[in-house]
Each structure stands twice: as C-alpha cells, then as structure tokens.
Design a protein that fits this description.
It comes from Xanthobacter aminoxidans. With 79 residues, the protein is mainly α. The protein has 4 helices and no strands. The chain is elongated, with a radius of gyration of 14 Å. The two termini are 29 Å apart.
C-alpha cells in the first residue's frame, strides 16, 4: 500500500467521524502544506511525522466516540 492510499484511508476515517483534516493536523502539529505534499506524492513523510498524524487522528476519533456515548440518552444505539 502506498502512502497516498494510507492518506486516503486516514482521510476517509476522519470524514466518517466528522473530523476535518485541519483538526487532525493541528492536533499532530503538522503544517497543511506538508500534508498536501505527502498527498500529492511530492514528498514522503518521515516516520515520526506520519505516526504523529495517524496518532492524532486516532485520538480525535476516540474522543468523538466517547463524547457521542456520553451525549446519547440511555437505551439508544451508540455509534
């Protein structure tokens, strides 16, 4: 799997949970221009930066799921 496939997969997960790329990049402390270069294939991310992006996405998704469970009334289906 190429980094562009990994990026597309990560973006799809963020979209599924209503999280913007900007939110993830801010959480990961990664500049948007760097993300754009990765997505275009102009550069390949350093492993530490890729892990920062991926981990930030997972933290935001986990927080979104936790908040949804807290907000849902008892007895209703959880996302």
């Amino acid at each position: 799997m190429t980094i562009q496939h990994e990026i597309a997969s990560l973006q799809a997960r963020l979209t599924e949970f209503g999280i913007s790329i900007g939110e993830m990049l801010a959480e990961a402390h990664i500049d948007r221009s760097m993300w754009t270069r990765w997505r275009r294939g102009a550069t390949v991310p350093r492993l530490d930066n890729w892990y920062a992006a991926r981990d930030a996405a997972e933290r935001l998704i986990a927080a979104r799921v936790r908040n949804a469970k807290v907000a849902a009334p008892a007895g209703e289906a959880q996302p």
